[in-house]
Structure formats: structure tokens, C-alpha cells
Amino acid sequence: MKEKLTINDVERYRLIVDIANTLGKDVKAMQHGYFPIKGNLYAWCPQLAYKENGVFVSPSNHGWINIISDNGKVIIETRDDSKEITKLKKQSKHTRVTFVKDQNTMDGYRFIGIFVYDEINSTKEQRIYLRISSEYEI
């Protein structure tokens, strides 16, 4: 069993259930992109938006636009319908072990680090998450 995840790992996870089992869950199926691991630690599996005609597009019908910075240290989350998004209350305290699915490569989810919610810079139009670690001890 793998003992540590790092952002340099080449391994990809085809399904969220594969991520859940890697993180110590014993499940046969999992479709939720946000689930508890232990205590205040949660797994987050957003799908990254892609550009179409110069505009970021949500890869799913949920309407979330998730964009990662070029250096991989910041995730910006908005809505494709321009609706206001509420600031997180309970979830803002969760630390997120984060895996993303990139629509450009379609090769599954990859670990990109541990992120926390940036309450100071988040607004009604966007939520900001900052990477606090590039590895996770399983």
C-alpha cells in the first residue's frame, strides 16, 4: 500500500472510488467529489474547467468552474451561471486532500496537494483555495 502522495506522482486515479480506497476507505462505489477522510480532513476531487472560444467552461452539469493557477498553488472556484456563491461556513474549516481531473488530458484524477479555503480573498463571485502542502502521508 502506498504510504505517501506527492505532487510529483505520475499515478492517476480513474475513478473517485480509487481515490477513496487509496486514502483508507473500504468502499465498492463512490461518486461524491467531496468526502471525509478523518477528523477535519476531507478529500476533494474537482474537475478542472477547460477553455472553449476563450471562455472557461464547466466540464460537468453541476456548473462549477475550477481553475488552477499556473504554479499549482491556487484553485479558483466560480459558477458558470454567474450566480453568487455563498461563503463556506462549516466546510471552510476543512483541510482538503485534493485530486483534480483535467479535461485536456482525460487521464483520470491526479493528486495536486493539500488545500485550505482562503476566507480573506474569497468573494460572492469566487472561492479561493491555497495549497499548504505538496504531499500527504497516508
Shape: globular
Percent range for β-strand residues: 35-45%
Query: Number of helical segments?
Result: 1
Low-confidence stretches: none
The count of DSSP E runs of length 2 or more, i.e. the number of strands, is: 12
Q: Could you estimate the helical fraction of the residues in percent? A: under 10%
Which structural class fits the helix and strand makeup? mainly beta
How confident overall, as mean pLDDT? 91
Run of helices and strands: EHEEEEEEEEEEE
Largest beta sheet, briefly? 8 strands, mixed
| End-to-end gap | 9 Å
State Rg.
15 Å
Structural notes for this entry:
There is one protein chain. The chain has about 140 residues and is mainly β. It is about 5% helix and about 40% strand. The chain is built from 1 helix and 12 strands, in the order E-H-E-E-E-E-E-E-E-E-E-E-E. The chain has one helix at about 15-20; strands spanning about 5, 35-40, 40-45, 45-50, 50, 55, 65-70, 75-80, 95-100, 110-115, 125-135, 135. The strands form 3 sheets. Strands 2, 3, 4, 7, 8, 9, 10 and 11 form an 8-stranded mixed beta sheet that branches. A two-stranded antiparallel ribbon has the order 1-12. The chain starts with a strand and ends with a strand.
